[in-house]
Amino acid sequence: MENLLRFDTGLMIWTWITFIIVLVVLGTKAWKPMIKALEDRENFIRESLEEAKAARKEADKVASEYEAMVAKARQEAQEIVAAGKDTAERMKTEILNETQVKSAGILKQAEAQITTERDKAISEIRTQIVDISIAAAEKIIVKSLSREDNERLIKDALKDYGQN
Predict the structure, then answer these.
(1) What is the residue extent of each domain of the chain?
(2) What is the radius of gyration, based on Cα positions, of the chain?
């Protein structure tokens, strides 16, 4: 143990020489490749970060385009629904108008038919009244008037009645 604590100049010189040789060998054979490997790794990481930033920008761009497309599709869908509602409302109005026109036509036709039937019934009633009146007048006045006189009197009475 005593030898270890003693100072030896030769040993110190050889230790320094060995240290410098090891330092030179490590510097040329180990340090340069390690530094180059570290620099390569740093460059790879830097490029990866730049690629990730570019990819993120592209993803953000695609996401914003997608959102714009979705918003446009929603708006188009709303426009289609609104157009459908407008078309349905217009068709409803047209159908109602057609129905009103047809019902008014049917009502006019029914009124005309009622008027025709009423006039026909009145005419038939007048004819029957004339026949009944002639028959009654014949029976009452058979002895005093002739048939031609009787018909003339009834026709004159009916003319007067028709003008009233």
Answers:
(1) 8-163
(2) 63
